[in-house]
Design a protein that fits this description.
The chain is an alpha/beta fold. The chain has two domains: 70 residues, Ribosomal Protein L30, Chain: A (2-Layer Sandwich), CATH 3.30.1390; 154 residues, no CATH class. Helices cover 27% and strands 24% of the residues. It has six helices and 13 strands. The strands form three sheets. Strands 4, 5, 9, 10, 11, 12 and 13 form a seven-stranded mixed beta sheet that branches. A three-stranded antiparallel beta sheet has the order 2-1-3. A hairpin with a 6-residue loop joins β10 and β11. It is globular. The N and C termini lie far apart (45 Å).
Length: 266
């Protein structure tokens, strides 16, 4: 039997316009491993990501890896694909139980990452609306708010997470920007009903929250992530902000979304 004879190999190259740090963070988030380990693999031409798999599985891995900006090949190549090359193996990364594979789509297949400098003067029009509960809906999330309840996944424009310090206590919070609504929504992560979503619920809410964000990114491939939120998905702790800086973050993201200039920032 020769069915399970394929492997997915990194070429050591990056897609045009992609930085090493950006690709490293996205691959680490995809495979749920450390950025250091991914960084070493990207520097080694011919690193084997997965081996002894069938062609269909190899294609899924390749599509997922390519969506991060890393260039990879299936080895041996399909007969009709002349651009594959035989590269020496160099180690293997154990992927998560379920690899996040992008949808079959010719458009953008990854979150857009933006850097928000906390320099803007806070504007009241971007003051976050507090949510007491975020739960699941048939095709999206339920904000359980008076004016807005069910929101389809594709209407979630942007996400940002942070730890807000209130004296000696820190609370992890999530900003959500929704299409056609100027003010963002904010909730403590302990107010998210993680069990309503098809993600693993862990004893620690921070781990469940990370899985929840991965799920939202998978459901909406064009979602916007604030840069440190991507770092959080890669295993870092959320950035720490006081109430003033949290408001500056909301204002900066709101102004960027309003400007329509997001693609120039990503």
């Amino acid at each position: 039997m020769t069915e399970n004879k394929y492997r997915v190999v990194l070429t050591g190259e990056l897609a045009d316009g992609k930085s090493e740090s950006e690709v490293t963070a996205r691959m680490a988030a995809l495979f749920k491993t450390s950025a250091d380990k991914i960084g070493m693999l990207l520097k080694k031409q011919g690193a084997v990501i997965k081996k002894d798999i069938n062609l269909e599985t190899a294609k899924k891995y390749a599509r997922a890896i390519l969506s991060t900006g890393a260039v990879c090949k299936i080895d041996p190549p399909e007969k009709e694909t002349p651009d594959g090359a035989s590269l020496a193996p160099s180690g293997e990364v154990a992927p998560p139980a379920e690899v996040v594979v992008p949808e079959e789509d010719t458009g953008r297949a990854e979150p857009r990452v933006v850097v928000i400098q906390l320099l803007k003067k806070p504007e009241d029009r971007f003051e976050p609306l507090a949510l007491e509960k975020v739960s699941g809906a048939p095709n999206g999330i339920n904000l359980n708010a008076a004016d807005v309840s069910e929101v389809p996944y594709d209407k979630i424009l942007a996400l940002a997470t942070f730890n807000e310090s209130n004296g000696t206590e820190e609370v992890t919070k999530l900003y959500m920007f929704i299409s056609s609504i100027e003010r963002p929504f904010v909730c403590d992560i302990d107010n998210i009903v993680f069990s309503d979503f098809p993600t693993k619920v862990f004893p620690k809410s921070i781990a469940s929250f990370r899985g929840f964000l991965h799920f939202l990114c998978k459901k909406n491939l064009s979602i916007i992530l604030e840069e440190t939120t991507l770092d959080f998905l890669s295993g870092s702790q959320p950035q720490k902000l006081d109430s003033l800086k949290a408001m500056k973050l909301a204002t900066g993201m709101g102004q960027l979304i309003e400007s329509g200039d997001i693609d120039s920032q990503t």
